[in-house]
Amino acid sequence: MATMQFHMTPGSCSTGIHVLLETLELPFEVHVVHLPAGEHRRPGYLALNPKGTIPTLVLPDGQALTDWLSIAWWLGRTHPRAGLLPEEPAAQARVLATVNHVVGTVHGQGYTRIFTPEAHLLEGDEAGPSAAARRERLQARGRALVSEGFDLLDRQLAAHADQGGWVCGAFSIADAALFYTEFWAERIGLAMPAGLAAHLARMKARPVVHQVLREEGYR
Ligand SMILES: N[C@@H](CCC(=O)N[C@@H](CS)C(=O)NCC(=O)O)C(=O)O
After folding, report:
1. How far is Cα 151 from Cα 154, in angstroms, rounded to an integer?
2. Atom 15, ligand 1: residue with shortest CA distance
3. From which residue to which does the signal peptide run (predicted)?
């Protein structure tokens, strides 16, 4: 059977998927996509993932999964014994809702404003004397959105405090999603509620997370 192809960028949201792949001990080949060099916009990559986003996972049968949630869901569904996705439908829906909140809101609404404020500027606003101030306002809005999202997730963690400290009760794909946004907060010096800082420490204590961070160039 063909090996899965994992298209990723070290230190990006694909790190969360990397954690899941290693947790499941799956064989896969890594293809590093250099975002700053614009490799995600090259025709070869767009043929695989027309959205031009990271991560992409090409399955053994050649199908490409092209976003965080669908990749994580597929990994959880196809490896049920690992318990990364609860079987019970309502519990599974809660895990998906948490991933959606982390990836769609905390990352998609918040962090993108911090990392790439220019992508949120209206046409014509990118230049001129007010451009820098506009970018700063967008970044401040991004930090507020991350902070609001983190507060909700902190309360969710507190509600499951007696179950091991994972965000949906048992360890799940949602913890890998939350992990990469916490890791980003730590790297850029963004304040994190105590519950999330403890969750990040819990994640880093997992040998597989330690291994992934080393493989992606972090010490
Ligand atoms: N909705 C996508 C978004 C992922 C995403 O934004 N990835 C970033 C890297 S962390 C990316 O590809 N940025 C490049 C771009 O959007 O041009 C998903 O869930 O996978």
Report:
1. 5
2. 53
3. none
